[in-house]
From TrEMBL:
Pfam families attached to this UniProt entry: Abhydrolase_3
Lineage summary: Bacteria, Bacillati, Actinomycetota, Actinomycetes, Mycobacteriales
Record organism: Corynebacterium guangdongense
Gene3D superfamilies per the UniProt record, alphabetical: alpha/beta hydrolase (3.40.50.1820)
Protein name: Acetyl esterase/lipase
UniProt feature coiled coil, ranges: none
Keyword field: Hydrolase
InterPro entries: AB_hydrolase_3, AB_hydrolase_fold, GDXG_lipolytic_enzyme
Residue spans crossing the bilayer: none
Positions of the Alpha/beta hydrolase fold-3 domain: 111-312
PANTHER family: AB HYDROLASE SUPERFAMILY PROTEIN C4A8.06C (PTHR48081), ALPHA_BETA HYDROLASE FOLD-3 DOMAIN-CONTAINING PROTEIN-RELATED (PTHR48081:SF8)
Keyword Hydrolase: yes
Length: 338
């Protein structure tokens, strides 16, 4: 699994594990509890990486690790038939995937994508496997900007700038999407687009981080839910970092678009895909957002992989393949591409 959270595990002082330290940890009650709940994980997603106690509840540690990991090279994934370049547009570095062979919709349709990492970690290259697959299968341009991390609203402002630039390129159909915190950015950008009467044709949300109140309500894993990869402690630290200048998680009120799940009226939202695993900490908030979209009369494509934790689709195998194929199918339909 190539995931910035595992870089966190390697770099955060409290989580650096020698073989001996790992063996010692595996003998603790916490490790035995984790092993007991690991039975709920889908067999194809059983990997040693989810046994590592990657954890911090400190926003300062999370910020420090994020700064370090952003400096480290993350090798992207190349794919035949797709040209991947790093370009600078509208003051932002953007990773752009363009199809070069076969049927092309690249002149008329595009996807704007935001990477995950809790608003504290990550780079656009980490999603190359999915994004080059989308570009190749649908024949569309996929743009992934390197946006500012915490605190709010810098990342959202960068995301809006990227959308404005992409619209200027003449694409008649645009989807906005992202994973985890990037999914939250995508939802926030979509809400702002509704308010400013800017058209978005499809919204692609992959286990999106939408609701700051989860960080207050859920302080411990609920059985196997929230126990692997992205935990309540990490979630709390990430939201504290992101909302540090606007009141923090659970504040009585927040600025528009800071926590998309707080919006009470989702009317006018574009057709939306939400995919989230049954063991993901964000499962409940994503389900609630899906229900709110349906109540607002929005077409919703819902995909719920059983036994899948946060970031499961970075594990190469059948579950990743099925999830990515589903994303391509729904996104293609949403953009009118057969």
């Amino acid at each position: 699994m190539r995931n910035p959270l595992h870089m966190l595990g390697n770099l955060a002082g409290a989580a650096v594990l020698t073989t001996g330290a790992l063996q010692a940890w595996l003998a603790t009650d916490a490790a035995r509890e984790r092993a007991r709940h690991q039975k709920a994980v889908h067999p194809h997603l059983q990997t040693r990486l989810i046994n590592y106690p990657v954890e911090t509840s400190s926003p300062a540690v999370l910020r420090a690790v994020g700064r370090v990991t952003r400096l480290l090279p993350v090798p992207g994934k190349s794919r035949e038939g797709v040209a991947t370049t790093v370009e600078r547009h509208a003051g932002l570095r953007m990773r752009v995937h363009r199809p070069v062979d076969g049927p092309r919709q690249s002149d008329t349709a595009a996807l704007l994508w935001f990477h995950g990492g809790g608003h504290a970690l990550g780079t656009p290259a980490q999603d190359d496997r999915l994004l080059t697959y989308i570009a190749a299968e649908l024949g569309i341009t996929v743009v992934a900007p390197r946006y500012s991390l915490a605190p709010f609203p810098a990342g959202l402002d960068d995301a809006w700038t990227a959308l404005a630039w992409l619209r200027q390129q003449g694409h008649s159909r645009i989807a906005v999407g992202g994973a985890s915190a990037g999914g939250g950015l995508a939802a926030g950008v979509t809400q702002r687009a509704i308010d400013e009467n800017v058209r978005i044709d499809y919204q692609l949300l992959v286990y999106p981080k939408l609701d700051d109140r989860t960080a207050v309500r859920v302080t411990e894993p609920q059985g196997a839910v929230g126990r692997f990869v992205w935990t309540p402690a990490l979630n709390r630290a990430a939201w504290e970092l992101y909302l540090a200048e606007v009141g923090g998680p659970g504040a009585e009120s927040l600025p528009d678009y800071a926590a998309p799940a707080r919006r009470t009226d989702l009317a006018g939202s574009p057709p939306t895909f939400i995919g989230v695993g049954s063991l993901d900490l964000f499962f409940a908030e994503d389900r609630d957002y899906a229900r709110a979209l349906i109540d607002a009369g929005v077409h919703l494509d819902w995909f719920q992989p059983t036994g899948a934790y946060h970031g499961f689709d970075h594990v190469v195998g059948p579950q990743m393949n099925l999830f990515h194929r589903t994303i391509v199918e729904k996104l293609g339909a949403g953009l009118g591409i057969s």
